Amino acid sequence: MAHYAIGDVQGCCDELLKLLSKIAFNFGTDTLWLTGDLVNRGPKSLEVLRFAMKHDYCVQTVLGNHDLHLLAVAYGGARLKKGDTLDAILNAVDNKVMLEWLRHQPMFVAHNHYAMVHAGLLPDWDIEQAHDYAEQIEQTLVSDRFEWLLQNMYGNKPKQEADISSELERLRFSLNVMTRMRVITQQHELDFDFKGEVDDIPAHLMPWFAAEHPAWADHKVVFGHWSALGLHVDEHVIGLDTGAVWGRELTAISLPDGRVTQVNGHKQAQDTMA
């Protein structure tokens, strides 16, 4: 009964299946965590979404920013962007079933001293708080107010918890932490401008996981989202977005022994970059 986690797939279905074959994943006994961003940018978002649905008895995903973008486009909260590869899902005959399944997926999960979220957790949040804030989003997404949230979730404010003054601001802040965050200020204020490598982070900022004594330190947090970070494993976190959709690697890690397995990323992206 092995437990694996895989970073952002983003429509790279062939690479996902190759990686699962390489680790000899057993669909009858093993568990797989996917760090979110199942869809978009890659060539087979529809196939990845159908794979996750078909195997949701052993595959657990969390919602990423691209998954939420798909929902927002489908329900009138956003428009398709240049580079989006979501048409196959939006035009599928069973799209309503897939979208319904997707909006019922969690923002955050925790099990056996491991936790998973797409982008990260605020250092001030303990695991119970993270569960509570995730549940607020999840309950809204499955309620009759889900379109309201999808239409109003976009925006960079508030940037710190002290500035929250409404339900919408609470939901947006939690969403931004869990699906968009990479770096924060020393005062734990969110910064959305920096998206590069750790060595290039400005002096006034730091990775969200670099804060001293984070409140969630009794769990190891598995996350994706930050492709420029690449594979990152330390005492408190495991970062798994290694840029498969950009032609780098798709990465799996075995929990808790830490064994890492990779396959080459999306070939078309490799050819474009060559």
Automatic annotation (TrEMBL):
Protein name: bis(5'-nucleosyl)-tetraphosphatase (symmetrical)
Role played: Hydrolyzes diadenosine 5',5'''-P1,P4-tetraphosphate to yield ADP.
PANTHER family, sorted: CYTOCHROME C5, PTHR40942
Organism of this sequence: Vitreoscilla massiliensis
Family classification: Belongs to the Ap4A hydrolase family.
A molecular-function term among this protein's GO annotations: bis(5'-nucleosyl)-tetraphosphatase (symmetrical) activity
Catalytic activity: P(1),P(4)-bis(5'-adenosyl) tetraphosphate + H2O = 2 ADP + 2 H(+)
EC number of this enzyme: 3.6.1.41
